[in-house]
Write a structure and sequence with these properties.
Blueprint: H1 11-20, H2 31-47, H3 54-71, H4 85-114, E1 130-131, E2 135-136, H5 137-157, H6 169-182, E3 186-187, H7 198-213, E4 217-221, E5 228-232
Antiparallel strand pairs: 1-2, 3-5, 4-5
Helix pairs in contact: 1-2, 1-4, 2-3, 2-5, 5-7, 6-7
């Protein structure tokens, strides 16, 4: 099965998405938290064997440098550096935000103007998942990234040494449906409590995505950084 996730336009677009969730001035966001979320997202993409563009990896290396500098203890006061990588990064995000807002405004004007001309019939195809309160597939995927990181830490600290490699998406779709049959609302994180290895965690998530795609499962998120909630979809049997 091919899994297609909505792509960001680049690493700055991903960073802007993460920063925007704090709903505060860009220069006031906790930059270390943003960096950790970015790195966790990239690590999860790699764990799921999804292709990660080189520009995202380059940004990851730059973010790791900024994070290491932020975490180093300040023993003595030093002269401020002429080039502050953290300030440069925040400035880039702010500038990107301005251009993106301008692009959205121009696109809106284009759509408005297009209504005044006759156009041939177009087939509209939209495969992305939309969550309540303007959430997107990326919010679902970012939430899974956090779950994945915690679960991997649990697995490493356990004594389990043997892992299966024969998990089937179809079987775990049934597992997810059975879990939903027992509860009206199910937290996404609850699905992974009994998972014993990374491959099982990934396959459960892919099974959940497939159920969302066929409208057997609905997803919602009440608050920024809040839990992803699963409920029965329109075509649930």
């Amino acid at each position: 099965m091919d899994i297609k996730l909505k792509d960001f336009e680049g690493p700055l677009d991903l960073l802007l998405h993460l920063v925007s969730k704090y709903e505060m001035d860009i220069y006031d966001v906790p930059i270390v938290e943003v960096i950790e979320q970015y790195l966790t997202y990239i690590e999860t993409l790699q764990a799921m064997r999804l292709e990660v563009a080189g520009e995202y990896m380059l940004m990851a290396s730059q973010l790791m440098l900024i994070k290491s500098r932020k975490l180093l203890p300040q023993i003595v006061e030093t002269e401020p550096e002429a080039d502050d990588p953290e300030l440069d990064l925040l400035s880039q995000i702010e500038e990107y935000r301005k251009y993106k807002l301008l692009g959205q405004e121009l696109a809106a004007q284009h759509d408005l103007r297009a209504q005044h001309f006759s156009k041939p019939k177009q087939e509209l195809i939209y495969d992305d998942v939309t969550l309540n309160h303007d959430r997107t597939t990326i919010d679902l995927f970012l939430a899974f990234s956090q779950i994945m990181a915690k679960k991997q830490a649990e697995i490493r600290s356990s004594h389990t040494t043997i892992s299966r490699d024969d998990y089937r998406i179809e079987d775990l779709m049934i597992f997810v449906e059975n879990q939903l049959a027992q509860k009206r609302r199910l937290m996404l994180s609850e699905l992974f409590h009994q998972a014993t290895d990374r491959q099982e965690v990934i396959t459960i998530f892919l099974a959940t995505l497939e159920l969302i795609k066929v409208q057997k499962v609905k997803v919602s998120q009440d608050d920024n950084f809040g839990e992803i909630v699963l409920t029965k979809g329109e075509s649930y049997d």
